[in-house]
Amino acid sequence: MNVAHLGFILASYIIAIVAIGGLAAGIWLEYRRLQRELAQYGDAQRERDSAP
Amino acid sequence: MTPAPLSALFLREIRAARRIGGGGTMGVVFFLILVTIVPFAIGPDLNLLSRIGPAILWIAALLATLLGLDRLFQADHEDGSLDLMLTGDTPLELIVLVKCLAHWTVTGLPLVVAAPLFGLMLALEPEALFGVTISLLAGTPALGMLGAIGAALTVTLRRGGLLMAILVLPLAIPVLIFGVSAAGAANSATTPFMTPFLILCALSLATLAAAPFAVAAALRHMSE
Amino acid sequence: MLKYANPTFFLGLAGRLLPWLAGATALTLAIGMWGAFFYAPADYQQGQTVRIMYIHVPSAWLAMFCYATMAASALGTLVWRHPLADAAQKAAAPIGAVFTFVCLVTGSLWGKPMWGTWWVWDARLTSVLVLFVIYLGLIALWQTIEDSSRAARAAAILTLVGVINLPIIKFSVDWWNTLHQPASVFRMDGPTIAPSMLWPLLVMGIAFTLLFTTLHVMSTRNEILRRRLRRLAIQAAAGEAQARPAHRLSTSESAP
């Protein structure tokens, strides 16, 4: 198997995974933070009720 | 909806621009400074300068137009006359168009007049001088109208100048491409002059027709 | 339709839908990656480097798809003044910017071994770069205007102006590129793609679209929750401000 330019292939996949994964992680952590802060106002209960 | 309020507005805009820091002169001085610093950056090679001269003049005109535009609606927003324009009988789109035309007369036209003089400093050939001047004459209205959209979107911000440049410059790329192509057509035998020039005129006319609606919508939404 | 688009209904729907969306994304991504790495053959001209295509092309597709989503939400903001459209529009901009960034970087990493240079001022690359700059401008606009509904309307107008302008930019960049044709650039046009390479690419395309949908729904939900949180905080602050003078009044009454 010819693995010429393996570095370029790996680099592009790693950059894509880091960028999109970072975005997804950021969105998820933000969601957790918002849930926690909403819980302080007792509002999170209603959120949980609406979801099964 | 008589033309009288519009002509009165036109004269008011021109007077206001002349009173506040000489409006047009400042733009021309900025234009001159931009043309002056380029040879310091790339060296005083006249052959090179005459080759890229049209591009330098166009970029300088683009920046000078944009930087002069951030106050287009801000002063009216601050002293409340924008509210009068919003509630008045005259359609806001027409008011916007007249304001932009007045602004172009005060700031755009001096740039067009100054361009051949600054072109001489960049060792442009007579054909290139003509090309730059006529393409700037055709293209600066489009730059002004696009800039007006950015000015309207940032009207409530205290320091919207940089944001406005970020928003408007990508939209101005087509104008720049066809403007520089028309201006540089004199230097190269391969490119025709009329094709880019006519497209440039079309861009200017299209923005003159369409941009007032976007600007008016932005002003209505931003000053609510 | 508008009846179902209220934020509370959306939160419920998002909570029920998201596990399925995320599962479908993970599944199609796994199949697509397997196809891209093990099933698809190496290109006879480009060798293994062609495997970059399986993330580059879907990112490019999503860079445009995301702008279309944003433009549709912008219409919702301006025509119906819908808060959900505001949130959807705000959520889409950073996601679109990230996909456009991935498209540019992977394209550059593909170009270096194939063309021998990191960047060519090719028509396609240049248009995507302009799209990236427009995304960044929109994000800057969102961050600068503090009042969120006003920011939504400003961003909506700019997005719609961009919709009219993007074809003109594309056309002018193509024209500009034929004018200054760069010397000896490897052209990669031509629809001659083998079926064994086509289906992993399509699966990756579907996977990326699902991924975008998942992220967009999550981010929109965040935006709605953020607004709800801000409203609650303001209400709580107002409640405290009301309670305090009343409390002082009652103590002064009971003093004598």
List the helices and strands and how they pair.
The complex is a heterotrimer of chains A (52), B (224) and C (256).
Chain A: H1 6-40, H2 44-50
Chain B: H1 3-19, H2 24-42, H3 46-68, H4 74-79, H5 81-87, H6 92-121, H7 126-153, H8 161-171, H9 173-184, H10 194-222
Chain C: H1 7-39, H2 53-80, H3 83-115, H4 123-144, H5 148-179, H6 195-254
Approximately how much helix is present in the residues of chain B? over 70%
Oligomeric composition of the shown chains: heterotrimer
Give the biggest beta sheet of chain C. Answer: none
Shape field of chain C: globular
In helices, the fraction of residues of chain C equals over 70%
Classification by helices and strands of chain C: mainly alpha
Sketch the topology of chain C as an H/E string, one letter per element.
HHHHHH
Mean pLDDT of chain C: 82
Number of domains of chain C: 1
Descriptive overview:
The complex is a heterotrimer of chains A (52), B (224) and C (256). By secondary structure, chain A is mostly helical. Chain A has helices spanning 6-40, 44-50. Chain A has a domain at 23-52. Chain A contains 2 helices and no strands. The termini of chain A are far apart. Helix content of chain B is 81%, strand content 0%. Chain B starts with a helix and ends with a helix. Chain C has one domain (25-40, 47-177, 198-242). Chain C contains 6 helices and no strands. Chain C has helices at residues 7-39, 53-80, 83-115, 123-144, 148-179, 195-254. The longest helix of chain C is centred in the C-terminal third of the chain and has 60 residues, at 195-254. The chains are: A mainly alpha (52), B mainly alpha (224), C mainly alpha (256).
Brief rundown of the structure:
The complex is a heterotrimer of chains A (52), B (224) and C (256). With 52 residues, chain A is mostly helical.
Features:
heterotrimer; A: 52 residues; mainly alpha; 2 helices; 81% helix; B: 224 residues; 10 helices; elongated
